[in-house]
Amino acid sequence: MDLRWLEWGKQLQSIAQNGLTYTEGVFDRERYKLLQAIAAEILATYSNVEPSYLLDLFAREVGYATPKVVVRAAVFRDDTILLVRERQDGCWTLPGGWADIGESPSEAVVREVYEESGYQTRAIKLLAIYDKNKHGYPPSQHHTYQLVIQCELLGGSPSQNIETDGVEFYRETELPELSCTRVMPAQIARMFEHYRNPDWPTDFD
Q1: Which of 3, 120, 137, 169 could serve as 80's disulfide partner, Cβ 3.0–4.6 Å?
Q2: Non-local CB neighbours of 158 within 8 Å, separated by 6+ positions
């Protein structure tokens, strides 16, 4: 499927957001708002989402447009990796989510692991920084960087929360169905390679 429409829409929204951030001209603001509306029309036409919904999302994005950041944890135990099951789609992923303002990446990933799995961990190494656009993820209105951080298991016990309803450690050859909006099978395989090769440098892009 040709996804140029998605890139065009996101680029137009980025230009409009940056313009609205810096312009002081009344007429320029109207032009950037029009550009934002065109971006919403493009995305709505191909994604079956109402333009008003997209414009509401765009309105919440203020300041200079930059990629959003997701943190994911690679937590290993005896040649298995920790996965959590998302209530939203019933599939499994590395624990994690959006990084919050005021948190460092290590603080964010430790918090996410505890909230989604019940386990206490310590962040020990940045394994990968992925541009999700370059790794076969389904289309998204966001341009997202995903940080995968290896975490050492310290304690705790499995528990559920409002986002997850399953917590398990899985062997590389016995993975369940993955939530492919959150993590790709090739990336899980790559994390096991990092686990077996602790001297490897961080992956990026």
Answers
A1: 169
A2: 117, 118, 119, 167, 168
The answer to whether the beta carbons of residues 96 and 112 sit under 8 Å apart is yes
CA atoms of 91 and 136, how far apart (whole Å):
17
If you search the block for the tokens 């528990």, which residue do you land on? 159
Query: CA angle, corner 44, sides to 3 and 86, nearest 5?
Result: 75
Question: For 104-130, what is each residue's pLDDT tens digit?
Answer: 999 999 999 999 999 999 999 999 999
pTM given for the model: 0.81
Q: Where are the alpha helices (DSSP H) in 23-146?
A: 26-47, 51-60, 105-117
Q: What is the DSSP string of the chain?
A: ---HHHHHHHHHHHHHHHHHHH---HHHHHHHHHHHHHHHHHHHHHHT--HHHHHHHHHH--SS---EEEEEEEEEETTEEEEEEETTTS-EE-SEEEPPTT--HHHHHHHHHHHHH-EEEEEEEEEEEEEGGGTTPPP-SS-EEEEEEEEEEEEE-----SSEEEEEEEEGGG---B-TTT--HHHHHHHHHHHH-TTPPPEE-
Q: Is the pLDDT score of 97 beyond 90? A: yes
